[in-house]
Predict the structure.
Amino acid sequence: MRQIDPATHLPLTPAVFHILLALAGGERHGYSVMQEVAERTGGVIPMGPGTLYGSIKRMVASGLIESAGERQEDGERRRFYALTKLGRAVLRAEAERLRDLVAAAEASRVLPKARKV
Amino acid sequence: MLRLITHALARLLPRDLRDAHGEEIARDIDRRFRDGRRVSTLADVAGAIIHERRRHRAPHLAAAGRRGTMFSLPQDTRFAFRALRRRPLFSAAVVFILALGIGSTTAIISLAEATLLRPVAVEDPERLVQVRGSVSYPAFRAMQEAADVAEHVLAYANLSGVSLQRGSVGRRVPATLVSGNYFEALGVRPAAGRLLVTADETPGGVPAAVLSHRLWTSAFDRSGAVIGETLHVNRRPVIVVGVAPRDFRGLSLANVGDIWMPAVFAPDLATGFIARPAALTRDMTWLTVAARLKPEVSSSQAASRLGALHASVYASQDEHKPLVVVPVRAAAVGAARADLRTFMLLLMAVAAALLLLGCTNVVNLLLAGGAARGQELAIRSALGAGRARLLTQLLLESLMLAAAGAGAGVLVAGGMLRAAGRYRLPGGVPIEDLGLGIDAVTLISCATLAIGCALIVGPLPAWLATRRDVRASLNQSSRGSTRLPLGRVLVAAQVALCVTLVGGGLLFARGLHRAMSFDLGYDPSHVAMTSADPALERLQAADVDAYIAAALARLRADPAVSAAGVSAVRPMRGGISTSVYIDGYTPSAGDDPHVSANLVSEGWMEAMGLRLLKGRTLRESDRTASPRAAVISETAANMYWRGRDPLGGRFRFDTGPQATPYEVVGVVADARYGAVDAEAQPFTYLSIFDPGLAAFRSQLHFFVRTAGAPMPMIARIRDAARAANPAVPLSFPMTMEEHVASVVMPQRLGFVLLVVFASAGLLLSASGVYAIAAYQVSMRTREIGIRMALGAARFRVVKDVVQDGALPVLTGLAAGTLVQLWASKFAEGFVYGLDARAPLQTAAAAIVIAAASAALMLPARRAASVDPVIALKES
């Protein structure tokens, strides 16, 4: 297996970022991802069945996520997805990139400095 | 409801996405709907379709967020043209097929337009009506008082022929006598000089004459010098004042005149019945009246007003028959309008069938071609051409092919119309009189048909061709989706159409055969004919007698002549009909005994080959005998001398003591002189030298029978007639077979056209069957190779190919036969004596099967000769 440099996947589109984020806490199935993204972004990132699975397909092809088998949930058989090692690395890389961006904005007084909680 | 729409939309997502996640998508759609998020889900799926498709086409471009290259019509046109040029054989085939279909349909549209839609080239023909039947001159003048219902009332009379002399050159032309306001009422403008006006009707002086454009072109080279010149019509001087416009053909299509003169000069100019002063009295009816109605006036109003005016001339008689008024367009083709319309509809149906056949063939070709171009299209698609772009391009190709087909079609139409010129339509309308050719009508029809074809033929193959999965096409591994079910349906449709065409052609052939093989009662083979017009030379009765005697004597001296004679009437072209009073026969109440009559010389019956049943034929000496001799037909004998011997029977043509008595000296078999399938009428033959009947001799017809070929005898007749009197104009030289054949001309025309169309249809269908079968074989070469490598016999393989090809053919055969059964009922009234349809259908089916089988043979043989090794290597 080739080592793929996570940086080549950056920048991520918002949709992909949030999907990876949603899977960071563990395996989920498609609908659950949709719900999580909707909740977290307050509906700003619209994600419906059409757009979601298109992204999922591409992410599987790129090796960012993988199918984690099928399981019963809510009385239905559903397919679950999980982050791959690459996916995790990419997610982390993007998060760091974003953090650097925010830091730059704070330095220029665009944003007030965030206080550490 | 929204949910269904959303699910349906989800079907439009790209295939690979559907394959991978289709179930999940469907389930999640349902779940979201249950959660109440309806519109957003619909919008999401719709958006995804656009988004995913764009990604699909050009992943690199979509990732960068750009759309494909912009639409460029000129560039696409150039691509299309180049694509067509790369496959010259294919393109040529398509253009050829379209040209044939479009051209023949256009020709028929032109014909229909000229006869049914626009037969009368005058201003505003809608308000023109014609009075049925003939009226007298004073009655016409009275009807001109109808200013309250009509803007103009005009009259005309067709003369079948006048002699026209310019210097020493004479010819026979058809003529029309007209009222002074004729041209003004019809709103016609001259092509040169001026047209007739009411002032030209002043009696005395030299009559004015207007030439037809046709005559002006053929006889006078369109020279302006002829205007003002004096010509001689029937040896009377007339002054040419102008030329009628090119497409003006008068008001009756079947009798297009070449020269128009004022009717008031009839007694002087004409010959025959109206060549006397009595022509302008109310006793002689010979004019046809037409009128241009005022805007709010109905036909019935006009009819009653004109009828009243007409009756006022005959005030003493109390018969006031209401006149019948018909629109001029219907009257233009005369009594045979219904026949003509049926004929034209039949032709149009046939042409449409051929066009359809051509289109389906082209669709098939395009389908097969599209599949073969899969690789090219896939590459284009991978390079960023959107589906819309590819579609545009393929449609442009179809349009270009159609345009080329239309261009060639114009030529085909022109050629067909020219070739058809020598035929007549039902109603006796000579096609060449219609002035058809490449004009606005043909061009517009071609263009419209081409666009129609492109619309029918283009979209479906283009859509299918651009649908293919990019990767699969690049791989070029042939899989199940090459069965082309659509192609086979089209083949079935083609075969069905073809069967109908072939069946129709056979039907016409049969009808024609029957029409021509009716027992005419005389023998038209080996007979030559020529007509002479002594009346046009104004010969006196004694001179006519001498003319006939001299010409016949000369002919009889010729060793090649076995019989020669002269008659006043030509078979199938009119006759003399008169009341008859028979000694010893009392007609029942309401019965008005009539006979048709012909005046003949000695030797005529022998020349015609009439069968003598009893007694003898007419002789020279009969001219002065009293009672005069007459020969009657079998039907006359049965009708008027039933139960007694007709020989010696007597009859008259008039009551009163002055009536000349006639005595029957012979009985001949019935002969058909009218329509070929009409009932036999009672007939009588009288001596052409009968002094009392000289008025009926305005035209003479020579008949000469020979043992060998009749064609050379035509010259002999001409020589003998000229030797007898060179000034008498001769016309209509032909063999009798040609003459009889001309009567069934509409059938012949229909027959020829159907044979042409049916052959074209067979060719198209056969090539359609071949194309599909060949395509199948080439696509399944791999499969065939495998099967043969696994030990399948060649025979089995071939059988499969044939079976595959046979199914659509058989389906088409069945469908076509049904259509044919239905259609033949429609054509029934038109073709003589239709019956026993079964043998015709079988014959048609057999022909089509033979053609289809031949077409299947080649691909089948190719399938059989597939080398398994080579086939397997192909992948």
